[in-house]
Specification:
The protein is mostly helical and 373 residues long. Helices cover 69% and strands 0% of the residues. Helix 4 crosses helix 5.
């Protein structure tokens, strides 16, 4: 769209984004060449289930157009599965299924078709369903599978741990924990044994690639660093300060959650997940608009009207930033302005979620002592 116009000479990918499909096809070359992933010839930045998912069409075709068709069909199926699963969860949480209309907002729908994040989102939602049904072994396995598909569900280890800790005295919970951990340990050991025997290095390679990603345009870190340097700060000093401050903002919510979090029911569990997920999204060294798929299926289960409004606003801002402004003028003021507004919306979402979560907080030691007296 708009190709050849003054607004976007090279056009805007309003409906179709073939770049990511091309990337997926490139990452699946190991199939066509009879090789293996996680080698120097075929590096991968995704965990093993993610690699298998994005590569799957290559088992059936080497044609680019057919690969894209397979990928889109798979994405549509995952979109439908995620919607059906979220509908079941909305029923369990006592929320209206009309909230599923958020799935048809431009950013959520666009990235559901052209990325693969619906797949790990399904696994994360299965974890929530298992927790809500007190199927703790299933929750552990679903979380493990989610991490094996895309790294972000590792954030939910803490909320799940807090949930299990609240019920540690129940024999049923202990048995479920043992079963779930045994399954995860067996699968992990088998995978790494096979990897070692084949000379693969999946864990080191994924970590190395992700760790070497620099601060990227479109993240609030990059914008802050740019402003700091423009204000006269030395590049190295500004980078160190920004990295420290935003690193704490991104991951620092874990400590207060561990100390005060009370995760003994389905709503506080989901809110505890969001408590860690939102700052991770907002303050990272890179930002991907498809992260809306991580956020929405969980948030609509517990969101009040204000939070729902912010989710809708966030979706529209993300689509405005990518593909519209990204393709029109990546380095323009409008793109930077949306970065600031988008981050503000995420902060507002986090604050509202934190306030709601605080209703479930553990009492302080002084309060417990007062009750005992």
């Amino acid at each position: 769209s708009f190709e050849g116009s003054k607004f976007a000479e090279n056009g805007i990918r309003l409906v179709r984004d073939r770049y990511e499909i091309k990337l997926f096809r490139d990452r699946s070359d190991w199939i066509a060449e009879g090789g293996l992933p996680y080698t120097l010839e075929h590096p991968q930045e995704y965990p093993p289930l993610g690699v298998l998912f994005i590569s799957a069409p290559r088992f059936f075709t080497d044609d680019k157009e057919v690969f894209e068709a397979f990928s889109l069909a798979r994405s549509a199926v995952c979109f439908g599965l995620l919607m059906a699963l979220t509908a079941a969860l909305l029923d369990r949480f006592g929320r209206s299924r009309r909230r599923l209309l958020v799935f048809f907002l431009p950013a959520f729908l666009y990235f559901s078709l052209w990325r693969f994040d619906t797949f790990p989102a399904i696994l994360a939602s299965l974890m929530v369903l298992a927790v809500a049904a007190d199927r703790h072994a299933g929750a552990i396995v679903a979380l493990f599978a989610g991490i094996a598909a895309k790294i972000y569900p590792v954030l939910f280890v803490i909320p799940l741990g807090l949930r299990l800790e609240r019920q540690r005295d129940q024999k049923k919970t202990r048995a479920a924990l043992i079963r779930g951990m045994a399954i995860v340990a067996a699968l992990t050991a088998a995978f790494f044994l096979v990897s070692w025997s084949l000379g693969l290095s999946p864990l080191a390679m994924v970590y190395d690639i992700q760790a070497k990603r620099g601060i990227e345009l479109g993240s609030i870190r990059e914008l802050t660093l740019r402003f700091a340097v423009a204000a006269g700060f030395a590049q190295a000093s500004a980078a160190a300060l920004v990295g420290c401050v935003f690193g704490l903002l991104q991951l620092g919510a874990a400590l207060p959650l561990i100390i005060r979090g009370k995760v003994d029911a389905q709503e506080p569990f989901v809110r505890a997940c969001l408590y860690l997920l939102i700052p991770f999204i907002a303050f990272g060294w890179f930002f991907s608009q498809q992260w809306i798929i991580w956020l929405v299926p969980l948030a609509i289960l517990v969101a009040d009207r204000r939070e729902m409004f912010l989710l809708v606003l966030l979706d529209l801002l993300l689509f405005l930033q990518f593909p519209v402004l990204y393709d029109a003028d990546l380095h323009g003021r409008a793109f930077d302005a949306v970065t600031v507004v988008r981050t503000t919306v995420l902060i507002a979402l986090w604050i509202l979620n934190a306030l709601a979560l605080s209703r479930f907080a553990r009492p302080s030691r002084q309060a417990r002592a007062g009750v005992g007296a």
